[in-house]
Amino acid sequence: MSAEKMLAVSPAPHINAQADTAFYMKRVCLALLPAQIWAVYIFGSRALAASAVSVISCVGFEWIFRRMLGRPQTVGDWSAVVTGLILAMSLPAGLPVYMIVTGAFAAIVVTKQLFGGIGQNFANPALVGRTVLFFSFQNEMQRFIVTPRMSQIMINAAGGPGVMLSADAVSGATPLVLFSNARTLPSNTEMFLGLINGSMGEISALALLIGGIYLCARKIISPVIPLSYTLTVMAVALFWGFDPVFHLCAGGVMLAAFFMATDYTTSPMLRSGKLIYGIGCGLLTMYFRVYTSFPEGISTAMLFMNALTPQIDRLTVRIRLKRLAKRRDV
Amino acid sequence: MLLSSAKKGIYLKSHKATRQMSVMPLTLPAEVRIPMTHGRAASCRPLVKAGDKVGVGQLIGEAEGPFAVPVHSSVSGTVTGIEELPSRLGMNDLHVVIKTDGRQSSAEDLRPPVIGSREEFLRAVRDSGLVGLGGEGFPTALKLDSAGQAIDSLLLNGAECEPFVTSDHRNMVAYARELVQGAAALMRYLSIRETLIGVQADKQDALDLIAAQCEGMDSINAAPLSRIFPAGEETLLIRELRGTELPLGGRPADKNILVLNVSTVIKLEQYLVTGMPLVSRTVTVDGDVIARPMNVEVPIGTAMGEVLRFCGADEGSLRKLIAGGPMTGTALPDTGFYTTKTDNALICFSAYRAERDRETACINCGRCIDSCPEGLLPGLLFKAWRERDEKALRDGLLSACSGCGCCSYVCPARKQISFELGLAKQFLMKKESENAEGGSDER
Ligand code: SF4
Ligand code: SF4
Asked: In A, which residues are within 8 Å of B411 by CB distance?
């Protein structure tokens, strides 16, 4: 009785999973590490600098904005770090600093915080950041630097059977540009490993796959969206007589499938919804690629599906509850 | 067949340090204060007064009405008074204070009940003072009676899916025979066709012992249950053992099923054989401030502090005391309570283990949905509740929520979903009765 009124009283359950929001966000950062390392390997310290600028400005904007509005600080949940990293991965390595900062502003302030912060955004912040940059700085966003290592790779490639990249070595054209110009393409192995040019985190399908598999294996994300997205892309490619592996590895499909389309907030909650969403992203991506000369196919496809997410959720939830009610005969 | 699609819920680290330890009897306390209210039973009227001599098993609290269950003395000694002390429900309750004489002699008139009919059996169950010992605390006699005549199958709940708690487990190991005999008695007097004893698969020893006792009895069988939490929840137990769904808001009796906790049946059998009513129970004492975690047989009405000290509790660093398991138990404000018939465990944590950091925004991760054993959408119900959206709460089948706590456990935003859904249920009920009163019930 000596212990009167000193114990903590709270409702059950009295234990909880250790994982909080920050835990999951940190895991996503970890999963992006292979792509980041590959970017540094190919593009050198510039890639590191660009990522640092992106992450720092995302976290900084979040901090400043929350503070200005007197809202509880949320930088501790690491979501701004994730946004910063994904944004960086989707940009060319040589992009000027002020442009990266602009992208971070569009992502964190306009897309995320103006709508109430984490969990409230209607579209994936990194995706909006990249899209805004693309439409504001078309040229810079398509200028891919050619580092010594990159030209080495190109020369090697030129010596081999895939005699192509040397012609574009100066401009550093990406495979997709080559594709729309109907030029010779790099081999699938080069595509898969990431011996190509492009946005810094998108070039190596392998590195992204390693991170993606890690996320699925640790149950950080559900595999439904990445699988349905990538399989749809490949199926459509096959259907139109294109090389499915090329379309899987080219551009940002892998980054989008594992890291952007799986964003909790802007993708459907139920498995059935995720399936619809993944297939939708895949179809739209291929539609833009094949039928338009639109270079931002993936981003547009995903923004479109982001916008549809509430509708998908509403539909799938209604079906789910109807089934449940039937099962419990209400 | 098992509905494997229904295997939701969560996997918890079991923390069952006491699973291999036999039950220890508590050193007899010098004094007990026996509450007149236990679990969900109605309060009793004390039958004794200061100066009365009582024996173990003597009736000291008379049950009035079907919701009450008689209370018996857990010790032999002298009544020193009747005190009004705080009860678990935050109200005051009468407690009979008895100074023990150390002899633990039984009351004189104890003898096994003579049973010839269903009515006499129900009478005996009531006289035994039993409530659901799994923590649920519903009067057992009332449960049997209201289940009606058409009970087909008896499910004995030995899941014990809560972390730390092993009191049912140890009772099943020690009293497998009584368990099976008790089930046989229930079947005989209530004309039940078959019994399934569901035990979570991690308690293989108990399963084996029970199976050995069931040898030669076609109609009583042991069945392993999946290791998820909350495998022992009524709807899940029925789903897993019988492959059938309870209708929403329905009772097991609607499917001709009766569910009882294993320890309840063991104590019932002991009463039928010896005539000794429920005067003590097994309590698992565990947690990081407990030096000697163990299962203790505790006389009803023992001061909690006494039980904790017996197990070497470091009371100075105790920060949280949970009556029951950590998933569904109740956190008590202090140690100044007295054990009731429903305390299957006392879990003691030093740090504020479940201290929720400030709740953060829902990130729509869907983990609550994946965890909900009832297939609900807890995050959406939570939002609907915060917005006081009655329609969304009803459409979301809030009434199917069992309060199991899985959703709160997994939520990375640290939302107390299950707790608030409990509030939401009360809110809906209040609205419904308001509507009924106003005659404007549109449903
Ligand atoms: S507390 Fe209710 S909503 Fe939450 S998991 Fe359990 S049944 Fe589902
Ligand atoms: S688990 Fe928590 S954060 Fe995740 S969807 Fe449910 S309520 Fe939201």
From this structure: 16
Is there a contact between B366 and A77 if contact means CB atoms under 8 Å apart?
Answer: no
Contacts of A13 in chain B (CB under 8 A): 326-328, 354, 405, 408-409, 418
* Measured torsion, CA atoms of residues B231, B235, B240, B244, in degrees rounded to the nearest 10: -170
Lookup: tokens for A28: 């996503």
| Facing A16 at nearest CB: one of B246, B354, B377 | B354
What is chain B's pLDDT, residue by residue, as a tens digit (443 residues)? 333 344 588 999 989 989 989 899 999 999 999 999 998 888 899 999 999 999 999 999 998 888 889 999 999 999 999 999 988 877 889 999 999 999 999 998 899 999 989 999 999 999 999 999 987 889 999 999 888 888 999 999 999 999 999 999 999 999 999 999 999 999 999 999 999 999 999 999 999 999 999 988 889 999 999 999 999 999 999 999 999 888 888 889 889 999 999 999 999 999 999 999 999 999 999 999 999 999 999 999 999 999 999 999 998 889 899 999 999 999 999 999 999 999 999 999 987 655 556 789 999 999 999 999 999 999 999 999 999 999 999 999 999 999 999 999 999 999 999 999 999 999 999 988 888 776 544 44
C-beta atoms of A264 and B366 within 8 A: yes
Contact B419 A117 (CB under 8 A): no
DSSP string of A214-272? HHHHTTSS-THHHHHHHHHHHHHHHHTT--HHHHHHSTTHHHIIIIITT-TTTS-SSHH
Probe site for chain A from B309, B334, B358, B391 (most A CB atoms < 10 A): B334
> pTM of the predicted model, to two decimals?
0.90
Which positions in chain B touch A24 (Cβ < 8 Å)?
365, 412
CA–centroid distance, B371 to ligand 2, in Å, is 10
Question: In angstroms, rounded to a whole number, what is the distance separating the alpha carbons of residues A297 and A179?
Answer: 14
3-state secondary structure of A29: helix
- DSSP secondary structure letter of residue B58: -
Pick from A8, A119, A327: which is nearest to B320 by CB?
A8
Q: Do A117 and B376 touch (CB under 8 A)?
A: no
CB B275 within 8 A of CB B115: no
Residue B298 token pair: 């505790």
Q: In this structure, what token pair is assigned to residue B98?
A: 């008895």
Indicate if ligand 2 lies below 6 Å from the C-beta of B102: no
**Burial class of B7 by CB neighbour count within 10 A (0 to 12, 13 to 18, 19+):** middle
Candidates A91, A245, A236, A232; CA nearest to A175 is A245
For every residue of A160-213, DSSP letters joined together read SS-TTHHHHTTTT--HHHHHHTT-----HHHHHHT-S-SSTTTS-HHHHHHHHH
Q: pLDDT per residue over A271-325, tens digit each?
A: 999 999 999 999 999 999 888 777 678 899 999 999 999 999 999 999 999 999 9
Q: How many CB pairs under 8 A join A and B?
A: 161
Nearest-by-Cβ selection for B377 from A74, A118, A317: A317
- Nearest Cα residue in chain B from A76: B360
ipTM of the complex: 0.88
Return d(Cα A283, Cα B384) in angstroms, integer: 34
Residue nearest to ligand 2 atom 7, measured at CA: B379
